[in-house]
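BUG: 3D viewer hangs when loading the predicted structure for this chain

Environment: internal workstation, default settings.
Expected: structure renders.
Actual: progress bar stalls at 90%.

Input used:
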Amino acid sequence: MGERRKGLVIAIDGPVGAGKSTVARRLAEALGYLHIDSGAMYRAVGWQAIRAGIDLHDHAGLAELAVRTDVRIASGPAGPRVLADGEDVTGALRTPAVDEAASLVSTCPAVRERLVALQRAMARSTAW
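Structure tokens produced before the viewer hung:
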């Protein structure tokens, strides 16, 4: 495909372990798109919460953390990187503790609202 449509967003949904991330990365690479791994963004907020000592059931604390944390997906030579406040945290996100934290922070409506806004901003900045 030599031509991209302005504003085209591709979403892949399915059960755990089905290969969604693998397919998404390969498709994004083939089309020249940025792969925005929303799950990795929740992991980054969960990682930040653990690091800051925020109770993962404290929605007010998580909301405050999400508002002040800039989470981005950036292209890198080794593939997409997850940045939290400019720090590459990609390597820290695949642990059982962060798995659990991501699951808990994703239940917080304010975290979801913030991350969706960041995802939309990233999608707008890469559209042409």
